[in-house]
Known about the structure:
- By secondary structure, the protein is of the alpha+beta class.
- It has helices at 3-19, 22-28, 47-55, and strands spanning 29-36, 44-45, 70-80, 83-92, 100-111, 117-129.
- β4 (83-92) and β5 form a beta hairpin.
Amino acid sequence: MNRATVQAWLDRYSEAWETYEPDAIRDLFSPDAEYRYHAWDEPLVGHEAIVADWLSPGGDPAERDQPGSFRAHYEPWLVEADRAVAIGTSDYDAAGDRPARKYFNCWLLQFDQEGRCSSFVEYYNLQRREPSPG
């Protein structure tokens, strides 16, 4: 893996997140991939489990991020052989009773020989943005 191939993977990840196309999600991950939304979580194991969770987080498809409700940008920070660290932001618009919010993300990624992610671990900080008075 190099910076360009990791960036291409990150771009495909963002597109899959926007579209929720099952094949696009599945193609990102190796069949035995481990995916952790939080470093302390037990991983989702296997690309089928990852697809199912993206399509229906927590068992409720209404919990999915709606297309156009966020903007995301990620880029490789460090690439070493089959491992990468990616950083970026996810910006969400206010919706209903949820204030606008911004996540500062750091992902630890490991890839297989075909360039599919075999291990994904997410770390993030959340900044809630309250509406301006006035």
